[in-house]
Every structure is written in C-alpha cells, then in structure tokens.
UniProtKB/TrEMBL annotation:
The keyword Signal appears for this protein: yes
GO cellular component terms listed in the entry, alphabetical order: periplasmic space
Pfam families per UniProt: NMT1_2
Official protein name in the record: ABC transporter substrate-binding protein
C-alpha cells in the first residue's frame, strides 16, 4: 500500500469521520461549533492547529470537525441546512450558494494560494532542458505537445492547467493533450503514461522524492496572476454568524492565533508535530514534514479576506470554467467578525 493510498483509505474509510477536539471538562463551558470539510487535508492546517494548540479552548469553542467523503457540495449543504456551522472549502461554494439566493458568507481565509502543483516526469524534463533555474513561463511553454493529467473535466486542476497554458500563449486543446484521470491516487498510477500531471501536497513531495521535476508550486506562488487569491475559506450562513457575533469573533480569534503559530519559529514545530499525531499519523513523518514546509507560505498571517478576493475568483471562474456568477462579491464575504488587533 502506498503512503498516499494509506492516507486516502484512512481518512475516507467511513462516509462521515468526526474528530471531536478538546476535553470533556473544558467543553462544558464552551460553545460547540461543527466544521465540515470534504477531505482531511493539510490545506486546512489553521483549523487543526487551533485545535491541538488549545486556541479553540482558550476562546471557549468546542470544535467538531466532520469529514464528508461525498464531497464539498454535501459538506456545504450541511452548513446551509443548519446541521453544521462552518464549511472549510473553496470560496466558489459561497458564490454558488449566494447565486441561488442562499445567505452564505465567507467569514475568514485559511489558505491564500492555489493548492495545485504541476510535476513532470524526470526524463521529459531533462529532454526539455528544464532545471530549477528555468523561469516558470519557460516551464509552461515546455508543455507544448505534451500529455498532461488532470483530475477531471472542469475541475479545479483542469482550470489551473488551462490558466498555465494560456498564460504563455498556448491553446490547451490545440497545443496539448489533456487527460482526465480521476483522483490523485489515479494520477500517481497514470504518471508513467503521461508527460506531466497536476498534484498536491503531500503527493507532490512524494513525486519529487521519486525523481519527478517540480514545474510549478501552487502554495509557492508559481501562478503569477493568482498570487494571494484565497482558495480555502471558512463559510457560514449569515444567520448563524450574526446570531451570536462574539462567538464568531472568538472562533476567528482562535484561527488567527493558529495562523500566528504556523509562522512562529518556535511554536510552528510544536504545532506541526501535534497536528501530525492527531490528524495524520498514517503518513510517513518525513513526507508530512516536507508537505508542511511547502504549504506554510500559503497560510495567511490572519483570517482577514482581501477586499478583491471573491472578485478575482469570479473573474478566474468566468474565464476557465462554466461557472458565470453575477452575484455581487462584496456581499458574499465579511471581515466584520475579525478580532480586534
């Protein structure tokens, strides 16, 4: 069994896997907040750090983190239906809900860079003369005539590959062959038959360790026009967020403390190891540590949403997907609940 397959089987072997944080005694005086997500992922790092470092407890929040293997739409539906409180996922989920008249609102940012990487088979990269010093644009140009694996048609990975190709004047349909492979584990198996593929941590680190060439790092900011664009956010209903506004503020204060820990030279090591022990013990520790280092630069130092974040998301989706949102992005996020600095 591969490391990545062990992670997938471990995190998705049940339809719903719940992780209840905090001690029973502390929870007695705390507000329970149920988070939902479609996967157990390092991209949700600040939420896990807020748990293991005791920041939720400090803010009198008793978190329950529920992973729904049936996907992001199901995880969001649980929040919109009142069966959970906060969805950890893509900002497009809030835009989609708002376009249907549902009062979903983004209350904070978790990850501020694209999470998708691009890797190329070692021999293909060598034939193209690519090295660590090759400019990103030239790496993208080297994809001309190549077979590139993505998870599925219209998926986030497909959109990012289209962006990368068009950014250097290539036509995805005419100049390359896009292969729809399936999930990340399927991409691992398919790489020998491809020239390049999308990936994500910790699979990317495993690919590179096995000799693959890292063409582009999403968390590292390789996609110039997409830099600083939140891709994992916290979504709630306006009714829940406003019902007890100081509870929402306390929740974001815990996330902010976690984000500071992640960037603190001393606290980050403790946080990394505690998150590993509770959430990712099935991963090889060295691989996990490498993925943590890769993702850290993409974690914002506070949960505030940039003013143009959702507008940039709408513009990107209009160009690279069938999703054409007409909703006012300024009405789909709020920084009103941020803790006072």
């Amino acid at each position: 069994m591969t490391i990545w397959k062990a992670l997938i089987r471990g995190s998705l072997r049940a339809c719903v896997c719940a992780f209840v944080a905090g001690s029973a005694t502390a929870a007695l005086a705390q507000d329970k907040v149920t988070f939902t997500a479609s996967t157990l992922s390092l991209f949700n790092m600040p939420v896990y750090v807020a748990d293991v470092m005791g920041h939720f407890t400090e803010q009198k929040i008793a978190p329950e983190i529920t992973v729904l293997k049936t996907g992001g739409s199901t995880a969001l539906a649980a929040v919109l239906g009142g069966n959970a409180n906060v969805y950890i996922g893509a900002p497009s989920s809030a835009l989609s809900a708002a376009s249907r008249g549902v009062e979903a609102v983004v209350i904070g940012s978790v990850l501020n860079e694209v999470s998708i990487d691009l890797v190329m088979r070692k021999e293909v990269a060598e034939q193209a003369g690519l090295t660590d010093r090759t400019p990103v644009a030239d790496r993208f140009r080297a994809l001309k005539g190549k077979k590139i694996g993505v998870t599925g048609s219209g998926s986030g990975s497909h959109q990012v590959v289209q962006y990368a190709l068009r950014s250097v004047g290539l036509d995805p349909e005419r100049d390359t062959t896009i292969v729809f492979v399936g999930g990340l584990e399927e991409l691992r198996a398919a790489l020998p038959r491809l020239d390049a593929t999308v990936s994500a941590s910790p699979l990317t680190e495993d690919f590179v360790r096995s000799g693959a060439y890292l063409m582009a790092s999403g968390p590292g900011g390789s996609y110039e026009a997409l830099k600083g664009m939140p891709t994992v956010v916290l979504v709630a209903t306006k009714r829940w967020a406003s019902a007890v506004p100081e509870r929402t503020t306390r929740l974001l204060a815990a996330i902010a403390s976690a984000q500071r820990d992640i960037h603190d030279r001393q606290a980050r090591i403790k946080a990394r190891d505690l998150v590993y022990a509770k959430y990712f013990p099935q991963l090889e520790k060295a691989l996990y540590d490498a993925a943590w280092e890769t993702i850290t630069p993409a974690i914002p130092t506070d949960p505030a949403m940039p003013a143009d974040a959702l507008r940039r998301s709408i513009d990107f989706l209009r160009e690279f997907s069938d999703q054409k949102y007409s909703v006012d992005p300024d009405k789909v996020y709020t920084n009103a609940y941020l803790p006072k600095s």
